[in-house]
Amino acid sequence: MNHYLIVAAMMLVTYLPRLIPFLALDEEKIPAGVKRWLGWLPYAALGALIIPGGLTAIDGPWWISPLGLLIAAGISWFYNNMIVTVLVTLAVLYFIPL
To answer: What is the per-residue pLDDT across 26-37, written as a single tens digit (0 to 9) for each?
Structure first.
């Protein structure tokens, strides 16, 4: 089978689910509860991607990776700055005696 045809079919299959809601839905027709629920989707998706890998990221004692996640969550909650969160979390985890 032609590789260009396969690539074109994959492009169509991934593009249509993004295009159809954009064309079919009007923002005024979406209920407020659905809008609120859709607002939380990016956070849920990021959590599902980050937390499993974050729990097993560091070789060594089992408690270091969850501790790093908790530190990162706390710092990001108070400072809301990704660079500060990453740097402080790395510094704290680096200086923990093993």
So the answer is: 767 778 888 888
pLDDT (0 to 100) of residue 24: 79
**pTM score, two decimals?**
0.56
Phi, psi of 76 (to 5 degrees): -70, -30
Average pLDDT in the 54-69 region? 85
Helix-helix angle 64-79:82-94, to 10 degrees: 150
Element (H, E) at 86: helix 82-94
Q: What is the pLDDT of residue 27?
A: 66
- CA dihedral for 86, 91, 94, 98, sign (positive or negative): negative
3-state secondary structure of 3: helix
Tokens of 84: 């500060």
**CB-neighbour burial class of residue 48 (10 A; exposed 0-12, middle 13-18, buried 19+):** exposed
